[in-house]
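Retro notes, structure queue

What went well: the backlog is down to a handful. What didn't: a couple of records were mislabeled last round, so from now on we paste the full input next to the output in the thread. Example, using DUF3243 family protein from Metabacillus lacus:
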Amino acid sequence: MSVLENWDEWKNFLADRLHHAENEGMSEGVISNLAFEIGDYLANQVEAKNAQEKVLADLWSVASQEEQHAIANMMVKLVENNGSK
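Corresponding output:
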């Protein structure tokens, strides 16, 4: 099963990558930009595997670039306290 097929596994996967990036000294701005790029790639290139991803893809598709950055930043906040540290 892919991490994209289960919302909780996806959040844990993102959290682990976020903590790794923070431990490697990546700034908040760099993490924010990466989150935006990943969100844009997923929304445009990867089929949603669950209802939560479908909602995010739908929101992304109607959002301005500024709103897409906000969505990406909210995803970072959502996973900040999940996953391993």
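Agreed that this is the format going forward. Reviewer comment attached to the example: Residues 3-79 form a domain with the Cytochrome Bc1 Complex; Chain D, domain 2 fold (CATH 1.10.760).
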